[in-house]
Specification:
The chain is mainly beta. It has one domain: Methylamine Dehydrogenase, Chain H (7 Propeller), CATH 2.130.10. It has a 5-stranded mixed beta sheet with strand order 5-1-31-30-29, with no helix packed on it. It has a 4-stranded antiparallel beta sheet with strand order 2-3-4-6, with no helix packed on it. The radius of gyration is 23 Å and the shape is globular. Belongs to the TCAB1 family. This is WD repeat-containing protein 79. Keywords: Repeat, WD repeat.
Amino acid sequence: MDEIPMEPEDLDIEPDTALTITPENVEISEENIATGDQPQFQYPPLFPSKTLLELCNSSWSRSLKDGDESQPYLRGCKWSPDGTCCLAVVNNKGMHVVELQKDLYVDSVTADRVIDVLDSVIHVKEAGLVYDYCWYPAMNSCVPETCCWLTTLQNAPVQMWDAFDGSLRCSYRGFNAVDEMEPALSVTFSSDGTRIIAGYKKMLRTFDVGRPGRDCAEHKISSPASCMATDSNLLAVGSWNTSISLYSVSELDTYKSIGKMHGHSGGVTHMKFTPDGLKLVSGARKDHRLLVWDIRYYRRPLNILSRAVDTNQRVYFDISPCGKYLMTGGTDGILKVWDVNKVDWTSSIDTGSVETDNASFKFPLHSDCCNSVSIHPYRPIVATGSGQHHFSDPTTIDNGDISPERTTDKTNEVEMKYSSNSENCLVFWWTGEVPNLT
């Protein structure tokens, strides 16, 4: 593989050191030491070649013990905060951790690079449906005690898992009014990583990370907390009733309501703050819009972006650490990218072009639903996941023939269509500069 000279802002990691990618790995020159200036990490530019290069992929298939109704499709993926690995949720297959290849830590890539096959280094077999999951925000592979993630799933408490051996570290339990344990619908860490915020049907519960068990602070809410996002002392709580609630969280784990935002036509499934903390992006199920909110003036959306979401499935989007790029998948399998330098997606709405698709780039990556997008925290790499549940077509019979009374006269097609383009994969894509690309 041809090597490209490294720029001063690129990461410089010795081959014998522990594998981690952090801003502290930025090269320090003699001039910096002499002047006392601290080097600053600069996020690399994305899409300079206006293309994506597949680096590696992984897929999961149905085992012999699984029934015909078992469909192991990907339901989400998230890069670890230090960028060394990616956590993926696979339906009926639990949690999987896959590592980034060592050559991608500092090297660039060429167009003739061989596509690698990803193997899971950690596999946690979850017994129920995983509702939500998140990494510890200060996760660093050089500090093993920080390498962990949280999950909340059906009929189980909030659980913390070790990212080195996949063992269960501890659990955090929430109990309802009749002292029955209930599962959390969403979970996240506070910005400083000292507390765990779990969202339930009628309650927000805050746990101390260092005190597992049932001790927690409670705050009543009027609607189920389907998803959450945090930034500094702000907490945004999305609900299935299409609303978003903003709270200010104090050091004593008390919640002060700031206000509510309305605009989605379906239940809110995913939210994320921009790196500057001034804007919030939200998406909902069966809603083709991404709403951009200015939290200082939250009465109406600041901007509306278009994507394809035709099902109740949660479709993740992501914002680059530099705050210049917004990426999202869709049920049509297309990855859409908004570049703030080309399309100012953080500006106010142009009422004449709300319905138009103003995405900077479109990449038809998957033949099935592209349900998750995760941008690497330090390298120009994007992880995407595909898959969704496919129902059997009721208009066909055992031999696969189409029932004649259920066909149309014009196109001779089935009235109720059930897609047969089933796909289930996790793919890493290179979004940086690719030399000698023809």
